[in-house]
Write a structure and sequence with these properties.
The protein is an alpha+beta fold. It folds into 3 domains: 113 residues, Butyryl-Coa Dehydrogenase, subunit A, domain 1 (Orthogonal Bundle), CATH 1.10.540; 108 residues, Butyryl-CoA Dehydrogenase, subunit A, domain 2 (Beta Barrel), CATH 2.40.110.10; 146 residues, Up-down Bundle (Butyryl-CoA Dehydrogenase, subunit A, domain 3). The protein is 53% helix and 15% strand. The chain contains 10 helices and 10 strands. The strands form 3 sheets. It has a 4-stranded mixed sheet with strand order 1-4-5-8. It has a 4-stranded antiparallel sheet with strand order 2-3-7-6, covered by helices on one side. The longest helix is centred in the middle third of the chain and has 37 residues. It is globular and about 80 Å long. The protein starts with 6 loop residues before the first helix and ends with a helix.
């Protein structure tokens, strides 16, 4: 498999790197401390075409491939994983789902502004009793003339308090269980729809997360996405692509941890020489670098398969499983190399560890990724 990047892919990577360093980095620490959403940054990402990278130009997107998306996601997430997940959800879960399964009218009304960064999207699957068991949906949608009436609660919704458009999974036929789940497009101002308070999180604090409440929320019948009863398939197919985005986010955190550890080890002296010259530190750096490169190759492999329109679900699960673990391990080692300084905000690496943990949880926990991989092995 050839991972020699094209000039366009390298240009995208460099553009993302320069934008992250000049526009995102200056406010990253303050936004993390205060838990502030990066409104201006997200707007500028939209203007660059980074909020609809893989969407066809016909629908307002940049028309780029998944590898370009991975390269951009890594560079953005190296500097701020909070911005990375905002970008990932809008690209992988919302825009992709609408382009793949939406009607021309839905694409015109919702996909175009989402891909252009004029609107922000969210993906609502998880519930208080439906996390890893996504089939256990309690949110109900019932037909009422020209509307669907939604009732229920969704949890842990990224972009929850700031999104304009939500892709919501709800049960339309309980007897059919997961085959009775349907997907709906819900606008933030629909009657009966309410957003909960922003969660105070351990990491990715600049990204907003909240619960959503539906109380006789009236959704026009034309906002049914794909077909009635196809909501679970829609969610699973969309999450397969989303896992590539989260793998890239984890990869960015891991790479940032490695670079910080290398820089500090060259500057910090102990026993009369830089600690980079100590074999104990060199072994840590070597292991970190090897793991990061392996995670990168797994992620690029999944992206390449997706671009070739081949089955990539297992490779995406492998990439997310491995990259998220590598992000945790590299952030932990970076703190260890920094010693006491690694435990304070000034040296950034403590944030890498806090941000890394969520990559093992959202868009399918590591345990769920193992199930996906194992079922493919024994089928």
């Amino acid at each position: 498999m050839n991972f020699t990047f094209t000039e366009e892919q390298l240009m995208i990577k460099q553009t993302a790197k320069e934008f992250a360093e000049s526009e995102i980095a200056p406010s990253t620490v303050e936004r993390d401390i205060k838990g502030e959403f990066p409104y201006d940054i997200v707007k500028k990402l939209g203007e660059l075409g980074f909020m609809g990278m893989m969407v066809s130009p016909e629908w307002g997107g940049a028309g780029l491939d998944t590898i370009s998306y991975v390269l951009a996601m890594e560079e953005i997430s190296k500097v701020d994983a909070s911005v990375g997940v905002i970008m990932s959800v809008n690209n992988s879960l919302v825009c992709w789902g609408l382009e793949e399964y939406g009607t021309p009218e839905q694409k015109e009304k919702y996909l175009k502004p989402l891909a252009q960064g004029k609107m922000l999207g969210a993906f609502a699957l998880s519930e208080p009793e439906a996390g890893s068991d996504a089939t256990n949906q309690h949110t109900i949608a019932e037909k009422d003339g020209d509307y669907w009436i939604l009732n229920g609660t969704k949890n842990w919704i990224t972009n929850g308090t700031t999104a304009d458009v939500y892709l919501v999974m709800a049960q339309t036929n309980r007897q059919l269980r997961h085959k009775g789940i349907s997907a709906f497009i819900v606008e933030k101002d629909f009657p009966g729809f309410e957003r909960g308070k922003k969660e105070d999180k351990l990491g990715i604090r600049s990204s907003d997360t909240c619960s959503l409440m539906f109380s006789n929320c009236r959704v026009p019948k034309e906002n049914l996405l794909w077909e009635e009863g196809k909501g679970f398939n829609f969610a699973m197919n969309t999450l397969n692509g989303g896992r590539i985005g989260i793998a890239a986010q984890a990869l960015g955190i891991a790479q940032a941890s490695l670079e910080a550890a290398i820089k500090y080890s060259k500057e910090r002296k102990a026993f009369g020489k830089p600690i980079a010259e100590l074999q104990a530190i060199q072994f840590k750096l070597a292991d970190m670098a090897t793991k990061v490169e392996a995670a990168r190759l797994l992620t690029l492999q999944a992206a390449s398969l997706k671009d070739q329109q081949k089955d990539f679900a297992v490779q995406a699960a492998m990439a997310k499983l491995f990259a998220s673990r590598v992000a945790m391990e590299c952030a932990d080692e970076a703190i260890q190399i920094h010693g006491g300084y690694g435990y304070v905000r000034e040296y950034l690496v403590e944030r890498y560890l806090r941000d890394a943990k969520i990559t093992e949880i959202y868009e399918g926990t590591s345990e769920i990724q193992r199930i996906v991989i194992a079922r493919n092995l024994i089928k």
